[in-house]
Amino acid sequence: MAANGQLDGAPIIFQPCQSLDNVGVLFLLPSLIANGLLSYKEHYHAIPKVFYSLDFTVLLLCFMFLSRIKNPEQLRHIVGSEFGKLLGIDRVPEAKRLRIRLSQISRQKKAGEWMSDLFQFWLGDKENQDFFFYVDGHVRVYHGKKANPGKKYISRQRLCLPGTSQYWINDSYGNPFLYIDAPVNEKLLEMLDKEIIPQLKHQVKDRVSKEMLERDSSLAIFTVVFDREGYSPEFFGKLWQERIAVITYRKNVKDQWDENDFKEYRINVDGVETDMLLCEKQIELDGVKMREVRRLTESRHQTSIITTNKKLSLESIAVYMFSRWCQENFFRYMRQEYDLDRIYQYATAEIDGSISVVNPDHSKLSYQIKKTTEKINRRRAKLYMIQQENCLDNLDNTSKYEKKQAKVIAELEPLEQQHDNLKEQRGKHPYKIALKDMPDHKRYNQLMQERNQFINILKMICYRSETSLTLIIPRSFKKLENEKRAFIKSMIKRKGDILPDYINKTITVKLYTMSTPRENRAMEEICNTLNDTQTLFPGTDMRLIYKFATI
């Protein structure tokens, strides 16, 4: 029927199965639904006359990512009929067919719209609440030859490599809200001003009443937390005029506060109780009044934090700033477990020619000037050492030192001339130029992002579903984040049985025993909680029942 165009998606029919791999992935289905997975139906229309429907494809991709099958090509290394039984179908598609289905989905160009609506869904119905958003950049390295995305600095590799930049917005627990692509070499401060803040203002619109803002002049609509890359007191003052607060590290701190002013506070950062020596003072930078909080470390270093938020307590400022590492942990986890840097679409697109970018010729000359300056400084230091040795040595050795000085001066003069010529050449090239003014062979373009964006949304939902499940794991897992996520990964990979009952319209999912009694007790509690959700398998009227087979 599918081959003749007479089938709108294969029917979901579960068969009794025993000792099936990756059965634990079904335990995350209630969490996937609770985190908005099925909301894609409000944006994407169904793909007609196919065997593998849109509904099946979305669920398959989520189950793949949760099972650490990180891309369609890895489907070649699993038993397709076995994995298909988790979804009520005889087998999963081959890699080529799944890529075709992804192309059909991405042609609808609804990923941005869906992600925006998910942001609203994840914010919930909260009104007049304190909203904190963590912003940080991530660079996806590009190794291909079709696109010319420009070079970015990769901090984890300490290299400048071609890549595409993304700026992610997360909550204080590391859960992602959305991300924004940066087509060229935009810095964080520029992206905050032009893209991120306007997007957040749109998302949080009307969630803080005007009456409360008028009544309390120190109340912020929301607070943005980021690192030193976005540092600009003038920009912070501009944001506060719109009642948007910031928390960040202070740059170029030269003074030291009296250590007697610091007091010890008990701070909870990412579930870990820590004693910190903290002190707060009011400061003014570039005419903007702010609060500065410093932490005195064991090495007597003073870490400086500044904020325009007037309502937060001293302890809360420290907690929110030092919790920024949750976003770094999110990037690391997503790279390792979900292959965040994978590129799914290699077609290129042009960038708006009016965008200003750093002139590559100017940058190249600046690099040459820097290297020449280093050579000059080394020779000047060598010349100074020769002169000092000459002053301290016997007069009989003066001629020897004069020869050494003459040799260094002979090397120094052409370098200084070269330095002046390079500076003169650089003066002929503006620091920034419009993209359209770049030579054709150097002009930046970008990869089309629709398919990558759709995949990233599914990965965000999967990550959030894991986080939701960690909240119902008993407190006996004391290492919190790492230990709980390791337990969930172990649970997903566990074998189990699937027992459908079409008379009572139920699907019983029985997971085999875990490796320790503590994990077995945790699984029993998880089963009880999940059964209370009364979850129906998508596309059916079959209710999921979760059981655990203890020994």
Key traits:
551 residues, 4-stranded mixed sheet, 20% strand
Helical content band: 25-40%
Quaternary structure of the protein: single chain
Distance between the first and last residues' Cα? 46 Å
Count of alpha/pi helices: 15
Structural class: alpha+beta
Number of strands: 18
Instruction: Tell me about the largest β-sheet.
Output: 10 strands, mixed
Could you tell me the strand content as a percent range?
15-25%
Topology, element by element:
Elements: E1 17-20, H1 29-34, H2 54-66, H3 80-84, H4 95-106, H5 111-123, E2 132-141, E3 151-154, E4 159-170, E5 176-182, H6 188-203, H7 210-215, E6 222-225, H8 233-241, E7 244-249, E8 263-269, E9 272-285, E10 288-296, E11 302-307, H9 314-322, H10 325-338, E12 348-349, E13 356-358, H11 360-392, H12 398-426, E14 432-434, E15 446-447, H13 450-470, H14 481-493, E16 496-501, E17 506-511, H15 517-531, E18 543-548
Parallel strand pairs: 2-6, 6-7, 17-18
Antiparallel strand pairs: 1-16, 2-4, 3-4, 4-5, 7-11, 8-9, 9-10, 10-11, 12-15, 13-14, 16-17
Helix pairs in contact: 2-13, 11-12, 13-14
